[in-house]
Design a protein that fits this description.
Elements: H1 2-5, H2 13-35, H3 39-46
């Protein structure tokens, strides 16, 4: 298909297939990571911005 759009792209079929395989490997890896996360870790990360003691004025020296 790429050779129809760009005639000078002969021999890039391997790169096209590799990019498709890498995309699905990353997608499957992210899906597996989400499925295997512990409930405690998810709760800790979801409540992280709401923990007491967070100083809102400590934004790299910027004062609002």
């Amino acid at each position: 298909m790429l050779s129809q759009i760009y005639p000078g792209a002969q021999g890039y079929e391997f790169v096209q297939g590799l990019s498709l395989v890498l995309f699905f490997l990353v997608f499957i890896g992210a899906f597996f990571m989400v499925i295997t996360m512990r409930k405690g870790y998810i709760d800790k990360m979801s409540n992280m911005p709401l923990e007491p003691g967070d100083d809102q004025s400590n934004n790299h020296g910027d004062q609002i």
